[in-house]
Specification:
Helices cover 39% and strands 19% of the residues. A seven-stranded mixed beta sheet has the order 2-1-11-10-12-13-14, with helices on both faces. Helix 10 links the parallel strand 12 and strand 13. Helix 1 runs antiparallel to helix 2 and helix 7 packs across helix 8. The longest helix is centred in the first third of the chain and has 17 residues. The N and C termini lie close together (12 Å).
Length: 340
């Protein structure tokens, strides 16, 4: 059975938008605690307008587009907009220093960058050394900024051009940089098929339904957030509860308030949450599954499950091997033949 066929990320997203237009797609809480919600219908309209803006500023199929932002809806919309026009998104770690950023720009020969005001001046200086980086787009602001294209200022005038650019799902969707533990970071090429498979695998293996609400606090520039959180949500028509930053002291309260049913963490964040003072309401939540990466001592695993009444599921993966590992798991466990 061929689970993917010729489907691209755009196909998956648009199919879900047609099926659940009025359902919450993203619920975003920023670092000040302000909450904003987007239905699938509104998210799709914004993605199309983002794509129109990028295209109108000469971003074409195959161009690399750097994305350097904290978790926010604009990050998701940019990812989906790049996919729609065939551009290749290159997520950057917001904690990277100029040395790392200089290398990423040079290595990818990116023609454009999408960032937020906090980082604008930094990239203005970096652009002086990289003539390939012609355009800077700014998200999360509405006022004009010299030397940049302000996305929100162009949204109203952007016209949906309808049909996405014709691409193959073997085309690159994004390049993700490794950590560079043993040498300089490598740009791992991930295709539309990789993302589509991640969504199918995650939604089926973790039994994600449209009623699920997935809590995301891990950074979107990492493959964990992209393939373990975002793709299964978009595939199943669930809701992504996205926080701009992780707060151990507020995490369980946010889980309760947003009625999260699924979450993805790492051992460090699990431990930080466990280290918070106990509360009589800790176990009163809707969590049915918490996925985590990196080994956790058994005593901490048991303590977390008992205290928060939430079963844990340990995962393993990395940018270079995630799609292959998922393929092996799904084939062995479900007895399926897949094509990627």
């Amino acid at each position: 059975m061929d689970m993917i066929g010729s489907a691209t990320l755009t196909d998956v997203f648009e199919n879900t938008c047609r099926a659940f237009p009025q359902k919450e797609c993203i619920v975003f809480e920023d670092r000040q605690g302000t909450v904003e919600s987007f239905t699938y219908e509104r998210a799709e309209a914004l993605v199309k307008r983002y794509a129109c803006i990028l295209a109108s500023h000469n971003i074409i199929r195959g161009d690399r587009v750097l994305v350097h932002m904290h978790n926010c809806p604009a990050w998701i919309f940019t990812w989906l907009a790049c996919a729609r026009i065939g551009a290749v998104m290159v997520p950057l770690n917001v904690l990277s220093g100029d040395f790392e950023l200089d290398y990423c720009i040079e290595h990818t020969r990116a023609t454009a960058l999408v960032t937020e005001p906090e980082f604008f001046e930094r990239f203005v200086e970096l652009r002086k050394q990289h003539f390939c980086l012609k355009t800077i787009f700014l998200a999360r602001m509405t006022s004009a900024q010299r030397g940049a294209i302000v996305l929100d200022a162009e949204i109203d005038g952007a016209q949906d051009k309808g049909t996405p650019v014709a691409i193959s799902n073997d085309d690159d969707l994004m390049w993700l940089f490794t950590s560079g533990t043993t040498s300089r970071p490598k740009a791992v090429q991930l295709t539309h098929a990789n993302a589509v498979f991640a969504g199918m695998f995650g939604s089926k293996w973790w039994k994600v339904t449209p009623e699920d609400r997935h809590m995301l606090v891990l950074p979107l520039f990492h493959v964990n957030a992209q393939f373990i959180s975002v793709m299964p949500v978009l595939t199943a028509g669930a809701t992504l509860i996205m926080n701009e930053v992780f707060s151990a002291s507020r995490y369980i309260e946010q889980v309760r308030r947003h009625r999260a049913t699924i979450a993805s963490l790492v051992a460090t964040t699990l431990t930080m949450i466990l280290n918070q003072p106990e509360n009589a309401l800790d176990a009163r939540n809707d969590l049915r599954l918490v996925m985590y990466a990196i080994g956790l001592p058994r005593e901490k695993l048991i303590s977390f499950q008992e205290r928060f009444n939430a079963p844990l599921c340990e995962l393993w993966g990395m940018s270079k091997h995630l799609a292959r590992q998922q393929l092996i798991h799904l084939t062995v466990i479900c007895g399926l033949t897949v094509s990627v």
